[in-house]
Amino acid sequence: MTFDPASLQFNEAGLIPAIAQDAETHEVLMLAWMNAESIARSLETGKVTYWSRSRQAFWVKGETSGHVQRLVEMRIDCDRDCLLVLVDQTGPACHTGRRSCFYTGIQEGDEVELMKSVD
Q1: Which long-range contacts (CB under 8 A, 24 or more apart) does 61-66 make?
Q2: Are strands 16-22 and 83-89 parallel, antiparallel or unpaired?
Q3: 39/36 Cα distance (integer angstroms)
Q4: Distance between CA 20 and CA 24 in Å, rounded?
Q5: For residue 87, which of 26, 45, 41 has the smallest C-alpha distance?
Q6: Cα distance between residue 8 and residue 17, in whole Å
Q7: What's the pTM value of the predicted model, to 2 decimals?
Q8: How many CB atoms are closer than 10 A to CB 59?
Q9: Residue 20, SS3 per DSSP
Q10: Which of 49, 87, 88, 118 fits a 20 to 30 Å CA distance from 59?
Q11: Alpha carbon distance 80, 18 (integer Å)
């Protein structure tokens, strides 16, 4: 069956959440948003492309920072309303300079910084 991005369940803004995961380590790196066009661009170019809600523009991960995400595989969840993007990540995935955006843990009711910036 040929994949059609229009078959996905987008929200009212035409977006779908995309979880980026390291294809080798399976570490969850970040969550961002995609629309049908950014999905198509990612699949076509192999460069993960998101939709920036704040800038209202396409965002090729690493285009300015050099911390690129090369698409290894894209998966659809069972409800077709979320994507898992398996990537080969160069450098940190988080804009804070950390490997993952999920660097804060909640332990015994307290927020704990789990990783430092690599920059």
Answers
A1: 61/20, 61/32, 61/93, 62/90, 62/91, 65/91, 65/95, 66/90, 66/91
A2: parallel
A3: 5
A4: 12
A5: 26
A6: 11
A7: 0.91
A8: 19
A9: strand
A10: 118
A11: 11
**pLDDT tens for residues 4-32?**
999 999 999 999 999 999 999 999 999 99
Residue 112 sits at the vertex; the CA angle it makes with 30 and 16, to the nearest 5 degrees, is 20
Give the pLDDT score at 119: 60
Read off the pLDDT of residues 60-111 as tens digits, 9 standing for 90 and up: 988 888 899 999 999 999 999 999 999 999 999 998 999 999 999 999 998 9
CA separation for the pair 6, 25 (Å, rounded): 30
What is the average pLDDT value for the chain, to the nearest integer? 94
Query: Which residue reads 């300079």 in tokens?
Result: 97
Supply φ then ψ for residue 37, to 5 degrees.
-70, -40
Please state, in angstroms and rounded to a whole number, the distance separating the CA atoms of residues 9 and 101.
Answer: 25
Enumerate the β-bridge partners of residue 52: 57
Given a contact cutoff of 8 angstroms between Cβ atoms, the answer to whether 114 and 104 are in contact is yes
Quickly tell me which residue has 């380590």 as its tokens: 25
Strand-pairing partners, residue 87, are: 22, 71
* Residue 72 contacts residue 80 (beta carbons within 8 Å): no
